[in-house]
Write a structure and sequence with these properties.
This is KI67 protein. InterPro entries: FHA_dom (IPR000253), SMAD_FHA_dom_sf (IPR008984). By secondary structure, this protein is α+β, with helices and mostly antiparallel strands. It has a domain of about 100 residues: Tumour Suppressor Smad4 (Sandwich). Helix content is about 20%, strand content about 35%. It has a 6-stranded antiparallel beta sheet, with no helix packed on it. A 5-stranded mixed beta sheet has the order 4-3-5-6-9, with no helix packed on it. A hairpin with a 5-residue loop joins strand 1 and strand 2.
């Protein structure tokens, strides 16, 4: 079962609470019994917001409540927004932190120029030469 990330409940005292792993491509927050994360507060909509994993494995947050909109990092939003690792979504007075799994956090690769490739090759040849020279001097003793 794939893991797309996790939702961490942030308690009112600021300490992490329950953790909900995202194992499907959609997570629905709300008051309805069909929600993945159910909140039994009268001000929460039946379907308040959702997180969906798109084809690029990016999490996207969509607000579904017109009455009490979801906030992302303390600010309102109107269109679906991509989530970043550590983003905090707030529904009424309840906060949740989104986290990508560690192994899927993309790492940027540095592209090498032809000059960098040549310098790398020269360094490898010099290292090999030093190793061979050291081996010969040990044999001679």
């Amino acid at each position: 079962m794939p893991r797309y990330g996790k939702i961490v409940v942030i308690r009112r005292n600021g300490i992490d609470g329950m953790v909900y792993p995202l194992t499907s491509t959609s997570c629905l927050f709300g008051r309805s019994t069909g929600c993945n994360i159910r909140m039994r507060l009268p001000w929460v909509s039946n379907e308040h917001c959702k997180i969906e994993i798109n084809e690029n494995k990016e999490a996207v947050l969509t607000n579904l409540s017109a009455v009490n909109p979801t906030k992302l990092n303390g600010a309102g939003f109107e269109q679906p927004v991509p989530l970043k690792h550590g983003d905090v979504l707030t529904i009424i007075d309840r906060s949740f932190r989104f986290e990508y799994p560690l192994q899927s956090t993309p790492k940027k690769r540095r592209s090498r120029s032809p000059k960098d490739e040549t310098l790398q090759q020269v360094a490898e040849v010099e290292l090999l030469h030093k190793k061979n020279s050291g081996a010969k001097s040990l044999d001679a003793s």
